[in-house]
Hints:
By secondary structure, the protein is mostly beta strands.
Amino acid sequence: MYLTEDIIGAASRIVYGRKGDIVEVLRNDIDLAFVMNKGIRFFVRYEKLSEEKISPDTQSPEESTGKVQRSRTKKRR
């Protein structure tokens, strides 16, 4: 299976896979598939997978994999 778009973590901003990457489906759920790409395992919706080969974009944006800035620094009571 191929990814039809870039898969990036919403909060962590970790890049799990790029458009056109080949992924191995490990498990099928109701609306998600548990896949592996280059040793990284993650869930992805079936709409973002394709059986046909997808060519990657030449202008893929690079996401920062640094730490996420937290707005609250003090401990809550």
